[in-house]
Design brief:
The chain has 352 residues and is of the alpha+beta class. It has helices at residues 23-31, 46-54, 58-62, 78-95, 153-164, 182-187, 210-219, 240-248, 255-267, 286-316, 319-338; strands spanning 2-3, 7-9, 20-22, 36-41, 65-70, 101-105, 114-120, 123-129, 144-149, 166-168, 189-192, 202-203, 229-230, 237-239, 276-278, 281-285. It is elongated and about 85 Å long.
Protein backbone atom coordinates (compact mmCIF):
# COMPACT_ATOMS: atom_id res chain seq x y z
CA UNK A 1 0.00 0.00 0.00
CA UNK A 2 1.38 3.40 -1.04
CA UNK A 3 0.08 6.75 0.22
CA UNK A 4 0.55 9.57 -2.29
CA UNK A 5 2.42 12.45 -0.56
CA UNK A 6 0.35 14.97 -2.50
CA UNK A 7 -3.11 16.24 -1.59
CA UNK A 8 -5.85 16.40 -4.22
CA UNK A 9 -7.94 19.57 -4.10
CA UNK A 10 -11.06 20.67 -5.95
CA UNK A 11 -9.71 24.24 -5.84
CA UNK A 12 -5.89 24.00 -5.72
CA UNK A 13 -5.65 27.65 -6.81
CA UNK A 14 -7.09 28.75 -3.47
CA UNK A 15 -4.04 27.65 -1.49
CA UNK A 16 -1.15 27.32 -3.99
CA UNK A 17 0.35 24.42 -2.06
CA UNK A 18 3.56 22.79 -3.25
CA UNK A 19 1.91 19.37 -2.99
CA UNK A 20 -1.62 20.46 -3.87
CA UNK A 21 -2.87 19.17 -7.24
CA UNK A 22 -6.17 19.14 -9.12
CA UNK A 23 -8.62 16.52 -7.86
CA UNK A 24 -10.67 16.66 -11.07
CA UNK A 25 -7.62 15.94 -13.25
CA UNK A 26 -6.50 13.10 -10.99
CA UNK A 27 -9.92 11.43 -11.12
CA UNK A 28 -10.00 11.70 -14.92
CA UNK A 29 -6.55 10.07 -15.10
CA UNK A 30 -7.71 7.27 -12.80
CA UNK A 31 -10.88 6.71 -14.83
CA UNK A 32 -9.10 6.35 -18.18
CA UNK A 33 -8.19 2.71 -18.65
CA UNK A 34 -10.00 1.48 -15.53
CA UNK A 35 -11.83 -1.83 -15.93
CA UNK A 36 -13.61 -1.49 -12.57
CA UNK A 37 -14.99 1.68 -10.94
CA UNK A 38 -16.82 1.85 -7.61
CA UNK A 39 -18.10 5.18 -6.26
CA UNK A 40 -19.52 5.60 -2.77
CA UNK A 41 -20.90 9.11 -2.36
CA UNK A 42 -23.25 10.68 0.15
CA UNK A 43 -24.53 13.13 -2.43
CA UNK A 44 -24.49 12.96 -6.21
CA UNK A 45 -24.79 15.18 -9.25
CA UNK A 46 -26.19 13.14 -12.12
CA UNK A 47 -25.49 15.87 -14.66
CA UNK A 48 -21.85 16.08 -13.60
CA UNK A 49 -21.39 12.30 -13.62
CA UNK A 50 -23.05 11.90 -17.01
CA UNK A 51 -20.75 14.53 -18.55
CA UNK A 52 -17.67 12.97 -16.93
CA UNK A 53 -18.49 9.47 -18.17
CA UNK A 54 -19.52 10.69 -21.62
CA UNK A 55 -16.02 12.18 -22.02
CA UNK A 56 -14.53 8.67 -21.90
CA UNK A 57 -13.98 6.83 -25.19
CA UNK A 58 -16.74 4.35 -26.03
CA UNK A 59 -14.22 1.51 -25.94
CA UNK A 60 -13.29 2.43 -22.37
CA UNK A 61 -16.95 2.59 -21.30
CA UNK A 62 -17.73 -0.82 -22.77
CA UNK A 63 -14.74 -2.37 -21.00
CA UNK A 64 -15.56 -0.88 -17.59
CA UNK A 65 -17.69 -2.35 -14.80
CA UNK A 66 -19.37 0.51 -12.93
CA UNK A 67 -21.03 0.47 -9.50
CA UNK A 68 -22.22 3.54 -7.58
CA UNK A 69 -23.83 3.73 -4.15
CA UNK A 70 -25.45 6.98 -3.03
CA UNK A 71 -27.29 8.19 0.03
CA UNK A 72 -30.58 10.03 0.53
CA UNK A 73 -30.83 12.34 3.53
CA UNK A 74 -34.56 12.23 4.19
CA UNK A 75 -37.48 9.94 3.45
CA UNK A 76 -39.33 12.83 1.86
CA UNK A 77 -36.62 13.12 -0.81
CA UNK A 78 -36.55 9.40 -1.62
CA UNK A 79 -39.26 9.39 -4.36
CA UNK A 80 -37.50 12.17 -6.28
CA UNK A 81 -34.09 10.51 -5.81
CA UNK A 82 -35.36 7.17 -7.10
CA UNK A 83 -36.92 8.75 -10.18
CA UNK A 84 -33.77 10.78 -10.90
CA UNK A 85 -31.40 7.84 -10.46
CA UNK A 86 -33.52 5.50 -12.58
CA UNK A 87 -33.28 8.01 -15.42
CA UNK A 88 -29.53 8.28 -14.79
CA UNK A 89 -29.20 4.48 -14.90
CA UNK A 90 -30.80 4.40 -18.35
CA UNK A 91 -28.38 7.08 -19.54
CA UNK A 92 -25.42 5.02 -18.33
CA UNK A 93 -26.66 2.06 -20.37
CA UNK A 94 -27.05 4.34 -23.40
CA UNK A 95 -23.46 5.52 -22.89
CA UNK A 96 -22.28 1.94 -23.35
CA UNK A 97 -21.43 0.74 -19.84
CA UNK A 98 -21.92 -2.98 -19.40
CA UNK A 99 -24.40 -3.66 -16.61
CA UNK A 100 -23.91 -0.43 -14.64
CA UNK A 101 -25.30 -0.57 -11.11
CA UNK A 102 -26.77 2.51 -9.44
CA UNK A 103 -27.71 1.76 -5.86
CA UNK A 104 -29.06 3.44 -2.73
CA UNK A 105 -27.74 2.75 0.76
CA UNK A 106 -30.68 1.47 2.78
CA UNK A 107 -29.68 1.81 6.41
CA UNK A 108 -31.46 4.29 8.67
CA UNK A 109 -28.47 6.52 9.43
CA UNK A 110 -27.59 9.04 6.69
CA UNK A 111 -24.83 7.80 4.36
CA UNK A 112 -21.95 10.28 4.47
CA UNK A 113 -19.01 8.43 2.85
CA UNK A 114 -16.93 9.71 -0.09
CA UNK A 115 -14.77 6.88 -1.41
CA UNK A 116 -13.67 6.22 -5.01
CA UNK A 117 -12.12 2.97 -6.25
CA UNK A 118 -10.50 2.41 -9.65
CA UNK A 119 -8.87 -0.82 -10.83
CA UNK A 120 -6.63 -1.24 -13.84
CA UNK A 121 -5.88 -4.90 -14.33
CA UNK A 122 -4.67 -5.80 -10.81
CA UNK A 123 -3.69 -2.29 -9.67
CA UNK A 124 -6.22 -0.63 -7.29
CA UNK A 125 -6.36 3.16 -6.83
CA UNK A 126 -8.32 4.72 -3.98
CA UNK A 127 -9.44 8.29 -3.28
CA UNK A 128 -10.73 9.04 0.22
CA UNK A 129 -11.83 12.45 1.49
CA UNK A 130 -14.62 15.02 1.44
CA UNK A 131 -15.68 15.36 -2.22
CA UNK A 132 -19.06 14.02 -3.30
CA UNK A 133 -19.52 12.77 -6.87
CA UNK A 134 -20.85 16.12 -7.98
CA UNK A 135 -19.71 19.53 -9.29
CA UNK A 136 -17.89 19.88 -5.95
CA UNK A 137 -15.04 17.97 -7.61
CA UNK A 138 -14.73 20.68 -10.26
CA UNK A 139 -14.53 23.48 -7.72
CA UNK A 140 -18.10 24.26 -6.70
CA UNK A 141 -16.84 23.66 -3.14
CA UNK A 142 -13.42 23.42 -1.56
CA UNK A 143 -12.73 19.69 -1.19
CA UNK A 144 -9.75 17.55 -0.17
CA UNK A 145 -8.97 13.91 -0.93
CA UNK A 146 -5.96 11.65 -0.50
CA UNK A 147 -4.90 8.90 -2.91
CA UNK A 148 -3.78 5.39 -2.04
CA UNK A 149 -2.52 2.72 -4.42
CA UNK A 150 -2.37 -1.01 -3.83
CA UNK A 151 -4.49 -3.48 -1.94
CA UNK A 152 -6.26 -2.40 1.24
CA UNK A 153 -8.20 -5.15 2.97
CA UNK A 154 -10.13 -2.80 5.25
CA UNK A 155 -11.37 -0.55 2.43
CA UNK A 156 -12.20 -3.58 0.29
CA UNK A 157 -14.25 -5.08 3.11
CA UNK A 158 -15.99 -1.74 3.68
CA UNK A 159 -16.94 -1.35 0.01
CA UNK A 160 -18.34 -4.87 -0.12
CA UNK A 161 -20.30 -4.23 3.08
CA UNK A 162 -21.83 -1.02 1.71
CA UNK A 163 -22.81 -2.70 -1.56
CA UNK A 164 -24.36 -5.62 0.34
CA UNK A 165 -26.42 -3.14 2.36
CA UNK A 166 -27.66 -1.16 -0.62
CA UNK A 167 -30.43 -1.69 -3.16
CA UNK A 168 -30.46 -1.13 -6.91
CA UNK A 169 -32.69 1.83 -7.73
CA UNK A 170 -34.96 -0.28 -9.94
CA UNK A 171 -35.94 -2.32 -6.88
CA UNK A 172 -36.60 0.62 -4.55
CA UNK A 173 -40.29 1.19 -3.82
CA UNK A 174 -40.64 4.37 -1.75
CA UNK A 175 -43.27 4.06 0.95
CA UNK A 176 -45.53 6.97 1.89
CA UNK A 177 -44.06 8.81 4.84
CA UNK A 178 -45.98 8.04 8.02
CA UNK A 179 -46.66 11.36 9.73
CA UNK A 180 -46.44 10.42 13.40
CA UNK A 181 -44.64 13.39 14.95
CA UNK A 182 -43.81 17.03 14.23
CA UNK A 183 -40.47 16.14 12.62
CA UNK A 184 -42.00 13.76 10.08
CA UNK A 185 -44.79 16.28 9.46
CA UNK A 186 -42.26 19.01 8.60
CA UNK A 187 -40.17 16.65 6.45
CA UNK A 188 -43.26 15.67 4.47
CA UNK A 189 -43.61 19.14 2.96
CA UNK A 190 -41.89 21.69 0.77
CA UNK A 191 -40.82 25.32 0.82
CA UNK A 192 -42.50 27.52 -1.76
CA UNK A 193 -41.36 30.99 -2.70
CA UNK A 194 -43.23 33.64 -4.62
CA UNK A 195 -40.91 36.15 -6.33
CA UNK A 196 -41.48 39.74 -5.28
CA UNK A 197 -40.32 41.12 -8.62
CA UNK A 198 -41.77 41.00 -12.08
CA UNK A 199 -40.05 40.08 -15.32
CA UNK A 200 -39.14 43.33 -17.04
CA UNK A 201 -37.37 44.47 -20.18
CA UNK A 202 -37.05 47.99 -18.76
CA UNK A 203 -33.99 49.80 -17.45
CA UNK A 204 -33.34 53.41 -16.47
CA UNK A 205 -30.97 55.23 -18.78
CA UNK A 206 -30.65 58.47 -16.75
CA UNK A 207 -29.73 59.42 -13.20
CA UNK A 208 -32.90 60.15 -11.19
CA UNK A 209 -32.85 62.33 -8.05
CA UNK A 210 -35.54 63.64 -5.71
CA UNK A 211 -36.25 66.70 -7.90
CA UNK A 212 -36.89 64.47 -10.88
CA UNK A 213 -39.18 62.23 -8.83
CA UNK A 214 -41.20 65.22 -7.64
CA UNK A 215 -41.74 66.40 -11.20
CA UNK A 216 -42.65 62.90 -12.37
CA UNK A 217 -45.21 62.43 -9.62
CA UNK A 218 -46.99 65.60 -10.70
CA UNK A 219 -46.86 64.67 -14.36
CA UNK A 220 -47.75 60.98 -14.32
CA UNK A 221 -51.42 61.74 -14.72
CA UNK A 222 -50.81 63.67 -17.92
CA UNK A 223 -49.70 62.43 -21.29
CA UNK A 224 -45.95 62.24 -21.84
CA UNK A 225 -44.13 62.85 -25.09
CA UNK A 226 -41.14 60.73 -24.04
CA UNK A 227 -40.67 57.89 -26.55
CA UNK A 228 -40.91 54.38 -25.07
CA UNK A 229 -41.44 55.67 -21.52
CA UNK A 230 -42.78 53.14 -19.05
CA UNK A 231 -44.89 55.08 -16.51
CA UNK A 232 -44.91 52.10 -14.15
CA UNK A 233 -41.18 52.43 -13.49
CA UNK A 234 -39.63 55.13 -11.36
CA UNK A 235 -38.15 57.60 -13.82
CA UNK A 236 -40.05 56.71 -17.02
CA UNK A 237 -37.61 53.87 -17.72
CA UNK A 238 -36.80 52.96 -21.31
CA UNK A 239 -38.99 50.06 -22.41
CA UNK A 240 -36.96 47.75 -24.61
CA UNK A 241 -40.08 45.67 -25.24
CA UNK A 242 -41.90 48.68 -26.66
CA UNK A 243 -38.90 49.71 -28.79
CA UNK A 244 -38.50 46.21 -30.23
CA UNK A 245 -42.22 46.13 -31.00
CA UNK A 246 -42.00 49.43 -32.87
CA UNK A 247 -38.89 48.43 -34.83
CA UNK A 248 -40.25 45.00 -35.81
CA UNK A 249 -43.89 46.04 -36.12
CA UNK A 250 -44.87 43.16 -33.81
CA UNK A 251 -46.15 44.51 -30.51
CA UNK A 252 -47.08 42.63 -27.40
CA UNK A 253 -50.75 42.95 -26.45
CA UNK A 254 -49.88 45.85 -24.14
CA UNK A 255 -46.65 47.00 -22.59
CA UNK A 256 -47.71 46.04 -19.09
CA UNK A 257 -49.01 42.65 -20.19
CA UNK A 258 -45.75 41.88 -21.98
CA UNK A 259 -43.45 42.80 -19.13
CA UNK A 260 -45.48 41.57 -16.16
CA UNK A 261 -47.22 38.42 -17.41
CA UNK A 262 -45.12 36.00 -15.37
CA UNK A 263 -45.28 38.19 -12.29
CA UNK A 264 -49.07 38.61 -12.56
CA UNK A 265 -49.63 34.89 -12.99
CA UNK A 266 -47.43 34.16 -10.00
CA UNK A 267 -49.23 36.75 -7.87
CA UNK A 268 -52.56 35.04 -8.64
CA UNK A 269 -51.22 31.77 -7.30
CA UNK A 270 -52.76 31.59 -3.84
CA UNK A 271 -51.13 29.35 -1.29
CA UNK A 272 -50.55 31.41 1.85
CA UNK A 273 -53.74 30.14 3.45
CA UNK A 274 -52.30 26.62 3.15
CA UNK A 275 -48.77 27.55 4.28
CA UNK A 276 -46.75 28.37 7.36
CA UNK A 277 -44.40 31.33 6.98
CA UNK A 278 -40.78 30.58 7.97
CA UNK A 279 -37.50 32.47 7.70
CA UNK A 280 -36.76 30.35 4.62
CA UNK A 281 -40.04 30.93 2.82
CA UNK A 282 -43.57 29.57 2.88
CA UNK A 283 -43.76 25.92 3.94
CA UNK A 284 -46.59 23.70 2.68
CA UNK A 285 -47.52 20.11 3.52
CA UNK A 286 -46.66 17.72 0.69
CA UNK A 287 -50.29 17.20 -0.34
CA UNK A 288 -50.61 20.92 -1.12
CA UNK A 289 -47.04 21.47 -2.27
CA UNK A 290 -47.30 19.08 -5.23
CA UNK A 291 -50.33 20.95 -6.58
CA UNK A 292 -48.65 24.35 -6.15
CA UNK A 293 -45.42 23.11 -7.77
CA UNK A 294 -47.37 21.85 -10.79
CA UNK A 295 -48.95 25.29 -11.19
CA UNK A 296 -45.57 27.02 -10.82
CA UNK A 297 -44.10 24.78 -13.53
CA UNK A 298 -46.99 25.69 -15.85
CA UNK A 299 -46.42 29.40 -15.19
CA UNK A 300 -42.68 29.00 -15.76
CA UNK A 301 -43.28 27.18 -19.05
CA UNK A 302 -45.61 29.94 -20.24
CA UNK A 303 -43.05 32.57 -19.20
CA UNK A 304 -40.26 30.75 -21.05
CA UNK A 305 -42.37 30.62 -24.22
CA UNK A 306 -43.01 34.36 -23.90
CA UNK A 307 -39.30 35.00 -23.49
CA UNK A 308 -38.58 32.92 -26.60
CA UNK A 309 -41.07 34.97 -28.60
CA UNK A 310 -39.47 38.18 -27.39
CA UNK A 311 -35.98 36.82 -28.15
CA UNK A 312 -37.07 36.05 -31.72
CA UNK A 313 -38.33 39.62 -32.13
CA UNK A 314 -35.15 40.97 -30.59
CA UNK A 315 -33.09 39.05 -33.14
CA UNK A 316 -35.09 40.61 -35.97
CA UNK A 317 -34.49 44.12 -34.62
CA UNK A 318 -31.24 45.65 -35.79
CA UNK A 319 -28.93 46.98 -33.07
CA UNK A 320 -28.59 50.35 -34.83
CA UNK A 321 -32.35 50.80 -34.86
CA UNK A 322 -32.65 50.03 -31.16
CA UNK A 323 -29.78 52.44 -30.41
CA UNK A 324 -31.70 55.13 -32.29
CA UNK A 325 -34.85 54.41 -30.25
CA UNK A 326 -32.87 54.59 -27.01
CA UNK A 327 -31.38 57.93 -28.09
CA UNK A 328 -34.88 59.24 -28.87
CA UNK A 329 -35.97 58.16 -25.40
CA UNK A 330 -33.06 60.00 -23.72
CA UNK A 331 -33.60 63.16 -25.75
CA UNK A 332 -37.34 63.01 -25.04
CA UNK A 333 -36.66 62.69 -21.32
CA UNK A 334 -34.29 65.67 -21.44
CA UNK A 335 -36.92 67.76 -23.23
CA UNK A 336 -39.60 66.65 -20.77
CA UNK A 337 -37.62 67.84 -17.74
CA UNK A 338 -36.45 70.98 -19.55
CA UNK A 339 -40.09 72.03 -19.73
CA UNK A 340 -40.07 71.94 -15.92
CA UNK A 341 -36.68 73.70 -15.62
CA UNK A 342 -34.95 70.55 -14.34
CA UNK A 343 -31.80 69.20 -15.98
CA UNK A 344 -31.16 65.48 -16.38
CA UNK A 345 -28.11 63.62 -17.72
CA UNK A 346 -27.82 60.09 -19.14
CA UNK A 347 -25.97 57.43 -17.19
CA UNK A 348 -22.41 56.93 -18.42
CA UNK A 349 -23.10 53.31 -19.35
CA UNK A 350 -26.70 53.63 -20.48
CA UNK A 351 -25.93 52.16 -23.93
CA UNK A 352 -24.60 48.96 -22.43
Amino acid sequence: MHIDPRVFLSRPQDLSLERGVSLADALVDATVGADRIIILSAYYGTGYLESAFAALPMKARRACSLTMVFGVETASRLPHAVEELRTFQKKLVALGFRSPATRLFNKNAPFHTKLYYFKRSTQPIWFVGSANASPAIDGARHELMVRLTGRHEGLTEYINGVIDNSVVVEAVRPKPLVVSDIRSFLLNGALCYRPLFRVSFTFEACQINSDHRAVLKKSLATASKVPHADPQTEGFGFSLANAVGQVTGEYFTTLTEAEAEAGRSMSKLKFRHMAAETIYGYWLPAAYAHDVQDKVRAIDAKSVNGMKRFAAKLERARQEQLDDELERHVEGLKAFFADHSVKIEPKSDYRS
